[in-house]
Amino acid sequence: MPRNVGWKVLNALHRTLVRLTRGRVAGSGYHMPVLELTTTGRKSGRPRPVMLTSPLQEGTTIVVVASRGGAVHHPDWFYNVQANPDVEVSYRGGPKQRMRAHVASAEERARLWPRVTADHANYAGYQERTEREIPLVLLEPAP
Q1: How many CA atoms does the CB half-sphere of 84 hold within 13 Å?
Q2: Exposure winner among 14, 72, 76, 85, fewest CB in 10 A?
Q3: How high is the pLDDT of residue 93?
């Protein structure tokens, strides 16, 4: 796993490419749509953008996986979402929209996880690498 600085550089490059091409280039990865999730830093209060893939969408709900490649700790964006669920999402290079995030309940995860891993086995591999349960986060349009 690259260090945080490496992730930040990769995210910045990816974000720039998606924005410049409006998602035509780098708007999908590993056969999944790419989105830019902007959270509010739980300590700084500043906007914190990160590029993610979404293995599953249900209607207007976008599912993202807090896998961090099977690392021991959750990704920083996950902690930010827990502290403040009001986020902005740019889906496939589109305009930003306000959304609300919530961590999937045990029932939601039990229903969604098999669907995520059926099409994207890498997530099952990430789960095998770590003792923590990898959370699913559901992004829904803000009321």
Answers
A1: 19
A2: 72
A3: 81
Contact between residue 66 and residue 75 where contact means Cβ atoms under 8 Å apart = yes
Classify burial at 30, counting beta carbons within 10 Å of its beta carbon; exposed 0-12, middle 13-18, buried 19 or more: exposed
CB contact at 8 A, 142 and 98: yes
Q: Are the beta carbons of 37 and 29 closer than 8 angstroms?
A: no
In whole angstroms, what is the distance from residue 58 CA to residue 56 CA?
A: 7
Q: What pTM value is reported for the model?
A: 0.83
Closest residue by Cα to residue 76 from 114, 107, 50, 96: 50
Helix (H) or strand (E) holding 99: strand 96-103
Task: Give the Cα separation of 91 and 32 in Å (integer).
Answer: 11
- Which residue from 3, 29, 30, 32 is spatially nearest to 14, judged by alpha carbons? 29
Dihedral sign for Cα 19, 94, 30, 82, please: positive
For residue range 115-143, what is the model confidence (pLDDT) as tens digits? 999 999 999 999 999 999 999 999 999 98
What number is the average pLDDT over the span 82-93? Answer: 94
